[in-house]
Design brief:
single chain; five-stranded antiparallel sheet; 16 helices; membrane
């Protein structure tokens, strides 16, 4: 098998292989596809085709959502109602589904001009647009292009001031050229506009406007102004035009004027009383002049603000009659265009909307309503409303989840939108067969969490959660201003998210080492006291070597079970200017919190300062709704929180998980001077009272009921688990310690020996992954129990057994016992993902609880417990049963993957994923035909491995890692889907599923639809009688080769595409295009039949006339003799 470099479609090559080797080729269809060809060169041969199960050509498909990154230009088709946006990177985004201009409307094509002076003609009649022709200019730089409506001649202005004309159908240059020295002795044609059939208005950057007569090939008039020109626009009658200038003025000129502007307007300038010239303003970059039949014309412009408006946001100005409306925008304006009722420029345009392209948004303004409201945008252009910091992708979610999120999210919609429908409504959506629901969750820098409906190829926002509401807003006093200079820029940014789709439980971790647990409800509630749990998760090895006075007596450090912590004194928030990464302990709201329907706060967990050190950021997080547990870890250790009983079950340093079986020889770090935070926070190792030891830097500003707190002090030899009803004592051997792992830097190199010694390398171990499951906790167990598996940065997988009380009221009263159970496996590199399979290779999902309404009146707790999916397990396994390999543990690290049989804990499969790079993201995903391990490596490769055999299925060099944003947001999900943030404003979704790739063509929809072109305006009797006028045939003769000659060969290089314009029309795909062609053929057939009927009738009339004349001739000559003729 492999790439034979033999095209299997070639029958000669096929016959040789068949005759010589008697082999059967099992791959069907092309394996190499380009725009112009397709071949089948990747082949698999076998002499036993009967043993084949399935063969497919694995492909990757992509869909991009969001706002185009760094937009540069925009164009609109008024007939097809499609919008095109070009970007600085050369990408084109078409809505609804480079300088950009349309070819004749109805032809289904697009012309784009790029910064490298190349012009491309795109075919939009097919589902996947493709380039038909290209034209590369060699001698001159392109500055502007213009295409009149229903014209096949494209006008291109260059930096030298010349204007070239291109035939769009053949995409060749015409010999007709407007040279700069004939128009005016200045350079750089900046703006072109055609209104009259033989008049072209040319605006030059230096302030010169030329009215060029195309037929006579000379300049009729020249208009000069002192300021540079940025744009030119015609009045629809062709008797006036308007210019915008660099000093913030607008000049209106009559065609047959005396060389002076008819009117000069300074929209935002102060008019002096003494009649002097107004103060100069900022340049007006663009102006459009649109007329109405029954009212005053519209003048719409961007820029032109006064220089004294410092700090004012960018504005779009709409001047209509005596009223001037200034519309402020959130971002700088890139371009705008006006949508009109008619596409013809020589008729009353009747504008009804303005499309404004901003740097990071697209706004459509309704001109027909008072106040100029905006249209509600149906596209997902607000992904970057706040920078995306993390994201998760879920496929095949419960079917009732999207309607539930939409119902609560619909109440969050803004008011004040236009009542009209979105005007950019062209094309037809595809009808894909993909029916399972998909949800994307994005976390943002301002603390918001957004839920998106990603079913099929659409992306629509469902619900928006603002986590910052939990925190108290800072007041603008001097103390806060000093703090804001040294704290993180985004203290509420979301770092990690854990979500259970079945129970709808959500947990988010912020960059300030805080967790918020949410529960979904359809009813509004008011929470009097939001429950807060403070956790000290700090671990220092040198603290272990010198226990404080009192030895191992840790009882006095532990609060009394079931009692609230004593009220601490007020302390200020800690601030440390010397730290390079300052972590802020938030101040939480003091007033009752009104929570609307949707996600409501269940519990807040905050890591606090210890020994003058800020808490480390949370590196891993997991949630299990069936167990009611949250587990999180960082570079110091892990903590298990029971969010039902609101208590900490386990608080351990990473080294404590090993017990006495720690394989690493860890050495203590040299002691360092503890940093004291502001407010005099007491060191936890000082011999003070327990009340002082329980203080947090912000506890004095809290009105929460302080819940049960489990504190693990590194100086004691025993670990206490504090619960509501009892205290469970677990014996733990004294640790040898480990230094906390520093926060991972953003470099691509993950070498662990470049800057640290081997001793430090072994001492630094962080928690990198978690997995809840019901499996065998120890080697040789005969029964499964609820477990938590922990992965570390040194490649170790550790097991933690969970002893859960019975469901119902007992779950809220009895303690949950958590007990470390030893090491399962060791791999190279950090552990990234863990999963479990049964003995048949079927994926075993973690236990979950089905959703119920938590705020329902009289809700029966027993019914809630019945809905839980946790299977009953035995906590006392029988050792008399015969051990069998009934489960497989799948573990994937940065370097390798292993499959381990349970309960024997024997490694049965092992695969080295990469030696020269490392894995950034790994997931165990479920496909239609089985399960696999999907990996994304730092070298850009996407790989999949079969389960449980770990055989390579796919290895594609898809995306070179050039930005850490990709590594931070890349994630896989079930059914062969993946996504990542390809730019700060765009989400890229990819699929490596053959089934989805096959359906992608139909899911894309149709851009081109058969639409009748609006009727041209009536020119009037007298105008048609005396005005004359030219037709398209005249322009064909004028620019054609017969009269204009051939263009210079070296000026531009023509690069033909695989199809011509006529071939493009015949290559349109899809049902809509087929129906359009059928309708056109039917119309042509009917027309021909009508012509045939007319000819038949004419022939019949001619025959009757001939017969009548013949009869008259016969009667006339009947009685005559031959000599009378």
């Amino acid at each position: 098998m492999g790439d034979f470099n033999i095209n299997w479609e070639n029958k000669t090559c096929r016959k040789k292989l068949k005759d010589y080797f008697n082999l059967t080729q099992i791959i069907q269809g092309p394996t190499r596809v380009t725009q112009s060809s397709q071949t089948q060169i990747d082949l698999v041969f076998t002499n036993r085709p009967d043993r084949k199960t399935k063969s497919t050509n694995l492909q990757t498909g992509t869909v991009r959502h969001g706002f185009p990154y760094q937009p540069s230009s925009m164009a609109h088709d008024p007939v097809q109602k499609i919008l095109a946006i070009g970007t600085q990177s050369g990408a084109l985004r078409l809505y609804p589904f480079c300088s950009v201009h349309w070819v004749p409307e109805g032809e289904g094509a697009l012309v784009s001009a790029l910064a490298d002076d190349s012009v491309h003609l795109w075919n939009l009649r097919q589902r996947r647009p493709a380039i038909l022709h290209s034209l590369k200019f060699n001698r001159e730089r392109i500055t502007f292009v213009h295409l009149p409506f229903q014209s096949k001649w494209l006008y291109i202005g260059t930096e030298k001031g010349n204007i070239h004309i291109v035939n769009v159908e053949s995409f060749t240059l015409s010999g007709y050229v407007i040279m700069w020295n004939k128009a005016i002795e200045l350079s750089k044609s900046h703006w072109l506009s055609v209104n009259s059939p033989f008049q072209l208005i040319i605006g030059y950057e230096a302030g010169i406007v030329v009215l060029w007569d195309l037929k006579s090939k000379k300049a009729d008039y020249r208009y000069t102004y002192d300021e540079a020109i940025h744009s030119v626009a015609w009045h629809h009658e062709g008797k006036q035009f308007i210019c915008s200038h660099s000093d913030g003025t607008l000049t209106i000129w009559n065609i047959k004027g005396q060389g002076k502007p008819f009117q000069t307007i300074t929209p935002h300038g102060k008019q002096p009383k003494d009649g002097k010239k107004p103060e100069p303003c900022k340049p007006i970059l663009k102006v459009e002049y649109k007329t109405t039949r029954l009212g005053d014309p519209f003048m719409i412009l961007s820029g032109g603000l006064s220089y004294d408006t410092v700090g004012r946001r960018p504005c779009l100005t709409v001047m209509h009659g005596k009223s001037t409306a200034v519309l402020e925008m959130d971002y700088p304006i890139v371009d705008f265009l006006t949508l009109c009722e008619t596409p013809y420029s020589n008729d009353f345009q009747e504008p009804y909307a303005v499309v404004v392209l901003l740097e990071k948004d697209l706004v459509v303004i309704d001109l027909a309503q008072n106040g100029y409201p905006i249209f509600e945008n149906p596209y997902p252009l607000t992904i970057h409303e706040s920078p995306v910091t993390c994201c998760e992708y879920f496929a095949d979610c419960p079917v009732d989840l999207i309607p539930a999120l939409y119902s609560v999210g619909s109440r969050q919609k803004r008011q004040g939108y236009s009542k009209k429908e979105w005007p950019i409504s062209g094309g037809n959506w595809g009808l894909g067969t993909q029916s399972y629901p998909e949800i994307i969750i994005t976390g943002h820098a301002d603390g918001t969490v957004k839920f998106w409906d990603a079913s099929a190829i659409m992306l629509q926002v469902l619900y928006k959660l603002k986590t910052a509401k939990v925190f108290e807003k800072s007041r603008n006093n001097k103390e806060d201003k000093q703090n804001t200079e040294i704290v993180d820029e985004d203290p509420f940014a979301i770092q990690i998210m854990a979500w259970c789709p079945e129970s709808r439980m959500l947990c988010v971790a912020g960059v300030s080492a805080n967790l918020i647990i949410y529960r979904f409800s359809k009813q509004e509630i008011t929470t009097e006291v939001v429950q807060l749990l403070e956790v000290r998760l700090q671990y220092e090895v040198n603290d272990m070597e010198s226990p404080p006075e009192g030895g191992g007596g840790g009882d006095r450090d532990l609060p009394t079970p079931g009692a609230a912590s004593p009220s601490p004194q007020t302390t200020g928030p800690p601030t440390h200017p010397s730290t390079s990464n300052t972590h802020v302990t938030h101040t939480y709201t003091l007033t009752p919190l009104k929570q609307s329907s949707g996600y409501q706060v269940e519990l807040v967990v905050q890591l606090v300062w210890v020994s003058g050190e800020p808490p480390q950021q949370i590196t891993s997080l997991a949630l299990n709704s069936s167990y009611g547990l949250i587990v999180f870890g960082n570079s110091n250790g892990l903590a298990v929180v029971d969010y039902l009983q609101k208590t900490v079950l386990l608080n351990l340093g990473t080294v404590e998980l090993y017990g006495s079986n720690d394989p690493y020889q860890r050495q203590a770090r040299s002691p360092r001077k503890a940093r004291q935070p502001a407010g005099g926070l007491c060191d936890i190792n000082e011999g003070s009272a327990s009340e002082d030891r329980c203080k947090s830097p912000t506890s004095g500003k809290l009105s929460f009921s302080m819940l049960e707190l489990c504190v693990f002090s590194p100086c004691v030899r025993v670990l206490y688990l504090s619960v509501l009803s009892s205290t469970v004592l677990l014996s733990v051997c004294p640790p040898r310690g480990a230094n906390p792992l520093d926060h991972r830097d953003n470099s691509f190199s993950r070498s662990r020996s470049s800057s640290v010694t081997s001793i430090d390398k072994e001492a630094r171990e962080a928690i990198t992954s978690f997995h809840f499951c019901e499996t065998f906790a120890r080697k040789g167990d005969s029964a499964i129990t609820p477990c938590l598996y922990v992965g570390t940065s040194l490649g170790t997988v550790l097991a933690v057994a969970l002893n859960l009380p019975p469901a119902g009221e007992q779950r809220l009263l009895q303690p949950v016992i958590v007990l470390p159970s030893g090491t399962l496996a060791r791999l190279k590199g950090s552990i990234l993902r863990m999963a479990f399979l049964d003995n048949t290779g079927t994926f075993l999902p973690p236990a979950f609880e089905t959703w119920y309404e938590p705020n329902a009146a009289g809700a029966d707790s027993e019914e809630r417990d019945k809905a839980r999916k946790r299977r009953p397990v035995s906590v006392s396994p029988s050792t008399s049963q015969e051990l069998q390999e009934s489960q497989y543990a799948v573990v994937c690290s940065e370097k390798q993957a292993k499959v381990i049989a349970l309960p024997s804990q024997n490694c049965i499969f092992k695969h080295s994923i990469t030696e020269t790079s490392f894995v950034l993201r790994a997931d165990v995903v479920q496909m239609n035909i089985g399960n696999c391990v999907a990996c994304f490596c730092a070298n850009g490769h996407i790989m999949t491995l079969s389960l449980p055999g770990l055989r390579p299925l796919l290895d594609v060099n898809y995306l070179p890692l050039t930005d850490m944003r990709i590594a931070r947001t890349f994630c896989f999900t079930n059914l062969g889907q993946a996504m990542y943030l390809t730019s700060p404003t765009e989400i890229q979704r990819i699929t490596y599923s053959q089934e989805t790739c096959e359906n992608l063509q139909e899911m894309l929809g149709e851009l081109f639809t058969p639409v009748e072109t609006p009727e041209a305006p009536n020119r009037g009797f007298f105008k048609g009688l005396f005005g004359g006028g030219a037709t398209s045939l005249d322009r064909e003769e004028l620019f054609g080769e017969t009269q204009a000659g051939k263009a210079s060969r070296g000026l531009a290089q023509h690069i033909p595409g695989p199809q011509g314009l006529e071939g493009m029309k015949g290559a349109a795909s899809g049902v809509v295009a087929d129906l359009a062609r059928a309708r056109i053929a039917l119309d042509e057939r009917g027309q021909k039949l009508g012509e045939l009927d007319e000819r038949t009738a004419a022939m019949l009339a001619s025959a009757d006339s001939f017969g009548k004349h013949a009869h008259d001739m016969m009667l006339k000559c009947k009685d005559k003799k031959w000599y009378q003729f």
